[in-house]
Amino acid sequence: GGRPDDPGAYRADGRVDYRARRKSYAFRSGLERVLAELERRSLVLMCAEEDPLECHRFLMICPGLVAAGVLPLHLRKGGRIETQEAAETRLLESNSFADVAANTLFPEARAEALEKACELQAEKFGFRVDALAVDRW
Q1: Are 13 and 132 in contact (CB under 8 A)?
Q2: Secondary structure class of 25 (helix, strand, coil)
Q3: Which of 8, 15, 6 lies closest to 122, judged by CA?
Q4: Which has the closest alpha carbon to 23: 63, 57, 58, 72?
Q5: pLDDT digits 0-9 by tens, 36-90
Q6: pTM, to two decimals
Q7: Confidence grade of residue 135 (pLDDT, cut at 50, 70, 90)
Q8: CB under 8 Å to 29, separation ≥6 — which residues?
Q9: Distance between CA 80 and CA 74 in Å, rounded?
Q10: Strand partners, 34
Q11: Helix, strand, coil percentages in the chain from 3-state DSSP, rounded to 5
Q12: Which residues of 69-95 are buried (b: 16+ CB within 10 A; e: fewer)?
């Protein structure tokens, strides 16, 4: 989840490191459970955040889903649906990566920019514990 018990999931400043979290056994195991469930039926992962760019599910889980070939849809205010690609483009544009946000000839550049944009966004919205607490674990 967005507030893991594992001290290895946190950077020295107390922020959850979503990239490192996606590499953990716990994350991979959870993702496998989600993917197995998707084989049987439709699935909704809910959050209190209206904007996916402010949610750990978008910043941490969606990259794992996309890598597995799943393209999430985000339910927005008023029942509007935002595609994963549209949310990613919005994220890129809001973090000064508009040059690779859409129609780029270099998908690798978009992927790299997206990872960096997720990191920048996590600086603003990712869960954080007191940095001293990380040292005590």
Answers
A1: no
A2: helix
A3: 15
A4: 63
A5: 999 999 999 988 889 999 998 899 899 999 999 999 999 999 999 999 999 999 9
A6: 0.85
A7: low
A8: none
A9: 8
A10: none
A11: 60, 5, 35
A12: eeebebeeeeeeebebeebbbbbbeeb
Torsion of CA 123, 46, 86, 110, to 10 degrees: 50
Q: What are phi and psi of 23, to 5 degrees?
A: -90, -10
Token duo for residue 91: 């994220």
- Residue 130 phi, psi dihedral angles, 5° rounding: -60, 130
DSSP strand pairing (73-75 vs 81-83) = antiparallel
Residues 6+ apart with CB under 8 A from 126: 2, 15, 16, 18, 56, 59
What is the arithmetic mean of pLDDT over 82-108? Answer: 87
pLDDT in tens, 49-58: 899 999 988 9
Q: Which amino acid belongs to residue 89?
A: T
Backbone φ and ψ for 10, nearest 5 degrees, come out as -110, 145
Start-end of H helices in the chain: 18-22, 25-40, 56, 62-67, 84-94, 107-125, 131-136
